[in-house]
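In response to the reviewer comment on reproducibility (Comment 2.3), we provide here a single inverse folding case reported in full, input and output, so that an independent group could reproduce the run without further information from us. The structure tokens appear first.
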């Protein structure tokens, strides 16, 4: 059975060039980057420094502003809880929006239990936040605005530059979960006025379990660490550095930077090809998310009268995600689609196609053909399908 991987928003395969860059740091160069007394330590430290530079280059930050973490979940927690903790018990107000990743929403919820106030902004039918709504929500005691760069389910991009300008003008910190955007489209912490930025290596063809948090140093953003210990990462994140992981993240950033424009165009062409085939090949299909302002590799669609889970089971040889089990632990329809006002019936019939670096045109054509076939079969046997929807 052929296997086609179309779930690149869940994770991406490690690029072989990234793996090659990492291997020496599992083998001969296994040193602890904190060891100052021998060449093993120095080699590890210089590899980590290089990684910091590669990341900083990609997001237009400075190497000294990069804190290594275990991934974007930890970066989101550190950014949000770390900024809030500077205030100790004085409380304060945070602003986020409804379609954020759980790492952001649940960090905010945890702060709410500790007495902070949280405003969760709603989004329009494409999943975008209105910058004016951010402006209106800012109060005297607002500490932080946390808005993602690109949504992991529907691919919708947020107007970061506008939101960043508002935060800057109102003297509020701006955190951005850019796990889906970094390495895929230009993310510039200077141009967008971002103070804290979360990155995950495994979303850009790097290894799992490593990420970074950009923390602005001018003007300096103060953070309280979540993990105490040896004082690594300028005291903001203790723990022996994951040297091979950091080398992999750095290499992944450099590769993404060099190939971004060409790769984005290629992946967008594949996405448009898939979209055209599906929309030409059947009726009663709806696009979820923004028609243009979305990740190049993301296509999220609802197939009326078809249960997304059943469709995925039927398409067993193609790796996809469905909006009915996006958080996979729950069988609730996607909270992201619900925030857009997508009715439950359509949310439950949604599928996310995530196209990436290693997908080919032939895979797209095979997948499109199989989806059309399987949707037709499910509609034929569905007791709920309208006669119009049934194939004659
Ligand atoms: C994947 C993802 C995360 C979590 O990243 P991990 O490195 O897996 O912890 C957070 N936010 C978004 C938008 C993501 O896509």
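Designed residues, in position order:
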């Amino acid at each position: 059975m052929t296997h086609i991987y179309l779930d690149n928003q869940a994770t991406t395969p490690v690029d072989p060039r990234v793996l090659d860059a990492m291997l020496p740091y599992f083998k001969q160069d296994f040193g602890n980057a904190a060891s100052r007394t021998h060449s093993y330590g120095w080699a590890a430290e210089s590899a980590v420094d290089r990684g910091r530079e590669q990341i900083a280059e990609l997001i237009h930050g400075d190497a000294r502003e990069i804190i290594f973490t275990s991934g974007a979940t930890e970066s989101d927690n550190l950014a949000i809880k770390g900024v809030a903790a500077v205030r100790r018990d004085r409380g304060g107000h945070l602003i986020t929006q409804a379609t954020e990743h759980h790492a952001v929403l649940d960090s905010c919820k945890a702060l709410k239990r500790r007495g902070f106030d949280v405003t969760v902004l709603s989004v329009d039918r494409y999943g975008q936040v209105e910058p004016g709504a951010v402006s209106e929500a800012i109060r005297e005691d607002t500490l932080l605005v946390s808005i993602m760069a690109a949504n992991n389910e529907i691919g919708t991009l947020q107007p970061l530059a506008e939101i960043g300008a508002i935060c800057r003008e109102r003297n509020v910190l701006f955190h951005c979960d850019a796990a889906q955007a970094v390495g895929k489209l230009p993310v510039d912490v200077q141009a967008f006025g971002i103070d804290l930025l979360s990155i995950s290596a495994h979303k850009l063809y790097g290894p799992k379990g490593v990420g970074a948090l950009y923390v602005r140093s001018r003007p300096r953003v103060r953070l309280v660490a979540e993990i105490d210990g040896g004082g690594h990462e300028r005291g903001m994140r203790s723990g022996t550095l994951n040297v091979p992981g950091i080398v992999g993240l750095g290499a992944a950033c450099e590769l993404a930077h060099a190939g971004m424009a060409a790769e984005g165009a290629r992946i967008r062409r594949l996405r448009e090809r898939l979209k055209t085939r599906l929309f030409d090949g059947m009726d009663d299909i709806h696009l979820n998310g923004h028609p243009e302002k979305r990740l190049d590799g993301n296509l999220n669609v609802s197939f009326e009268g078809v249960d997304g889970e059943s469709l995925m089971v039927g398409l067993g040889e193609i790796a996809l995600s469905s909006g009915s089990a996006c958080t996979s632990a729950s069988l609730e329809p996607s909270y992201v689609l619900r925030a857009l006002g997508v009715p439950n019936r359509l949310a439950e019939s949604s599928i996310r196609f995530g196209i990436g670096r290693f997908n080919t045109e032939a895979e797209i054509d095979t997948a499109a053909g199989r989806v059309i076939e399987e949707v037709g079969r499910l509609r034929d046997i569905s007791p709920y399908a309208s006669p119009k929807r049934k194939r004659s």
